[in-house]
Amino acid sequence: MTPWWSFNGLKYKLGRFKFMLALLIITSLVGYLGFSLGGESDIWQENKIKDQDYRLDNLYSELDEKIRQINYLTVELEVEQRANEQIQQELLDIREESFALRRELNFYQKVLAPELVADGISVEQFNVEATNIANRYVFRFALVQTNSAKRYARGNIRVNLVVSQNDEKRTLDLAKLAKMSKKNLTFSFHFFQYFEAEFDLEPGMIAEQLAVKVIQPKNKWQPYKSFTQKFDWPELEE
Questions:
Q1: Residue among 210, 214, 233, 216 nearest 122 (CA)
Q2: CA 214 to CA 116: how far, in whole Å?
Q3: Is the pTM of this model over 0.70?
């Protein structure tokens, strides 16, 4: 026996005409609902696309603004770099001029303090500065020929630092603290040579005095000579 809710059962129970009419109504209703839902889906998609376009336009605007800012900052950086290069060149010119003046004053150096000159060499422009790292410092100085010798000055240096810690004075090898290699401690120059290095001090250490020893070993061109020049530790703003 065919169940009444089956396709043939409904057709038998309602009759051919009513069954076809019911089928037509159901088909029309399903089509209407599908059309309505499809239209709403199209509207939702259209609104979604508009929203995405709006957000995309905003992102492009922000990107353009960022690019303009980057270009502006790049130009500013280039200007600052050029100004810094000019300042560095001016400092170099001043330093070389100072070295030239020192060579001209060699006569007075030999008369007033001959112990500070070894074969026409002196320590000039010694300076110590604090860095932006706690207990870290940088020292700079130059060896300068103070005469008109045409030969290269050759030798090596030693740099010591006198400190006090726990009421006890100690002498430290500043070259070791600064991790300077043997090559960094040798010199071979005509006119001048520049030295620079960073070093760290232990917390609680109080620096008092620095000493630079210049050694010119004996060779066929020069006898052995050496001298030590001392500098008080400067007052630093840390």
A1: 214
A2: 10
A3: no
